[in-house]
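go over whats below:
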Amino acid sequence: MKYALSHAALAACLAAAAVSTAAHAQNLAIVNGKPVPSARLQALEQQMARAGRPVDDAARQQLREEAILREIFVQEAERRGLRARPEVKAQLELATQTVLIRELFADQQRRQPVTDAELRAEYDRLVKQMGQEYRARHILLGSEEEAKAVLAELDKGTRFEDLAKQRSKDPGSAAKGGDLDWATPDMFVPEFGNAMKALNKGEVTRTPVQSPFGWHVIRLDDTRAAQVPPFDDVKPQLQQQMQQQRLVQFQEELRAKAKVQ
């Protein structure tokens, strides 16, 4: 009989130990008799990972201590009845909304991911939109009379590059003989860009071009198809941009459907 009782006591101890082990597996710790779920540590780890910080063993140990401290502080706040204060209730409601909204947007992006085919189509559209690049030189003058005088000197055979170095009021290009490097027309003011596009390779504007900066004499040196980075290089940025555009559209659709009185 005593042997049977000892077996029963042993079985009870083993069962209690199993329950205690299971509880510890589910909980990070027990603070003042209240379990701290392991899910809180996981949430802190995810938060750290989203911030781009590595989650190694040392970081996990720090996060574990943070989770325990949070529980201690919250218990003390609860003991003081702070949760019942109106201003605290309002802040808790805002915090809840922030979390739910963040998860809503994340869920929407998971439901409507941007496909590789869509990314490629957008890339091709942007490449086509960029069109051509132009390599031009210019001489910037302060008046139409000065610009006409420069044109007269060009007609006499004076080198464009030399006149740009001597006469141009554009310090950025004058030292380079007026060279503006490769650029698309939309990178210039409309007056300049339109005049540049109208030129043939090697041609100089026959009349001065006025812009908000002054009077220009322009020479077109060359044209080429717009140089864009390879698809794989810009894919991450393009994906982020398209995801953001879809998210904005999703927000606008929800706002339009909402009944606000």
Observations:
- Strands lie at 27-31, 34-37, 132-141, 179-183, 209-211, 214-225.
- Residues 131-225 form a domain with the Chitinase A; domain 3 fold (CATH 3.10.50.40).
- The two ends are 78 Å apart (CA to CA).
- The CA atoms of residues 179 and 251 lie 46 Å apart.
